[in-house]
Amino acid sequence: MTSAPSSARASAPASIGNVGVGFDVLGLAFDAVRDSVTAHRTTEPGVRLGTVSGLVDSLPAEVERNCALAAAKAVLDAAGAPFGVRIDIDKGVPLSAGMGGSAASAVAAAGAVNALLVTPFETLDLLLPAMQGERVSADPPPWDNVMAALLGGLVIAARLDPPLIRRLPLPAGIACILFHPDRKIETQDARKLLSDSIAKDIAVEHARNIASFVAGCASHDLELIAAGLRDVFIEPQRLPLLPELTSVQAAALAAGALGCSFSGSGPSVFAWVPDAQAEACRAAMAAAFAAADCAATPYHAPLISDGLRLEAVS
């Protein structure tokens, strides 16, 4: 039997859940920042927390309260592994920011532990273990951030049971700009704002928008993308969480953005913009946040971003 590694490090990117128009359907990897997880094989069974570094220096040590530990346990359980792991976490993705921080940790942990197995799972097979990690953050766990962090690029959840997820084409020459305001919003709290019903005219407009957006991405038609990258469904209900969105959105669109909306449940705000207008759009969004006296950190990444990466094995 081939011997398995004693340690492995994997990383996963931030992500943009919903991508504005695609609530719980679309996710986009955003490789401006990453979480990195190192898994160390132990003879003692179970999952233990090791070091925590990066944006935070402490995280819960209980498996049921830590996304990375829960995902690691799910991989070990799925494999029937006869060993345990100690997990070191380096947080590069802010938490409670609408940037998929919990998903990045879960996916990176699943990838690191998977690399310790004699017969590792295929990448797509790590979706459900990573979802068990995401469940710590939100139950039931949304798919958008997890599938994007795992596969990279723009991903659609076409079916949940059994899972059917696919990467979608993306247009060239487009940048993604994201601003993270100095606020925190928990996914569960943001979901509590959402109505259980939707008016027929809103449902029709939402369907038109998501169809236009996906068709535009598939055909590299920027006019279709711009027509569809508008959230008439979720964004209006969550606007009270960040009233500044209205002015930031207007500034981004005036500066050439194809669309601008909440990243996931917020408070972060993202925009898709042609490369030639990217700097002007970033400056316009920064000015709008400043005018609203709202501190916000900017990030910038290409649309086509990697997902899970195995960084080192020893």
Summed up:
The chain has 10 helices and 11 strands.
Characteristics:
314 residues, 10 helices, alpha+beta, 4-stranded antiparallel β-sheet, globular, 27% strand
Note down, in words, how this protein is organized:
The protein has ten helices and eleven strands. It has about 325 residues and is of the alpha+beta class. Strands 1, 2, 3, 4, 5, 6 and 11 form a seven-stranded mixed sheet that branches. A four-stranded antiparallel sheet has the order 8-9-7-10, sandwiched between helices. Helix 1 packs parallel to helix 2 (about 100-115) and helix 6 packs antiparallel against helix 7 (about 220-230). The two termini are about 15 Å apart. The model has no long low-confidence stretch (mean pLDDT about 95).
Spatial shape = globular
The main sheet comes to: 7 strands, mixed
> Beta-strand percentage?
25-35%
Our count of helices gives 10
Give me the Rg, rounded.
19 Å
Distance between the termini: 17 Å
User: pLDDT under 50 segments (min length 5)?
Assistant: none
**Order of SSEs:** EEEHEHHHEEEHHHHHEEHEE
- In which range does the helix fraction lie? 25-40%
Mean pLDDT: 95
Question: Based on helices, strands and strand pairing, what is the structural class?
Answer: alpha+beta
How many strand units? 11
